Amino acid sequence: KMEAAKKSFFSAAAFAVVGASANREKFGNKVLRALITTGKPVYPINPNSAEIEGQKAYPSLADLPESAKESGIAVSFVSPPAVSLASFPAAASLPPRALWFQPGASSGEVVEEAAKIGVDVLHDGPCVLVELNFHH
Fold it and tell me: What gap in Å lies between CA 40 and CA 36, rounded to an integer?
């Protein structure tokens, strides 16, 4: 099931990163840069930045352009559980191809609520950086 969920995540036409950071030391920046290497559109979600790593940033998933929503987007969460939870209504309305919670971004409640969205959910273990063999 995990492999199928990964496949569904990486087969998305675009990615959004909730908790994207402009600080290159931070996980939220590394995950963003790793996904950029796929060559697909990547949308950083950060209410305090206009642009991160050359990509236009959006305050929330609800602010993504229609084109992003229509293309089939997967969402990576590199955010505290409370922030992840708060973005679920917007995530559900995308609707996303898959949701991937990086280590530290999920909790029991987060996983339970994410399951209700009805898409593939990855949590507790695999990391986008490892999957994409990204070490910067």
Answer: 7
Q: According to the model, what pLDDT value does residue 109 have? A: 95
pLDDT digits (tens, 9 = 90+) for 78-117: 999 999 999 999 999 998 999 999 888 999 999 999 999 9
Cα 132 to the chain's mean position, in Å? 14
If one counts the domains in the chain, the total is 1
Going from the C-alpha of 44 to that of each of 17, 20, 92, the distances in angstroms are: 5, 5, 18
CATH assignment at residue 82 = 3.40.50.720
Domain of 39 in residue numbering reads as 1-67+74-132
Strand ranges of the sheet holding 14-18, from the earlier edge strand across to the other edge:
42-45, 14-18, 73-77, 98-101, 120-122
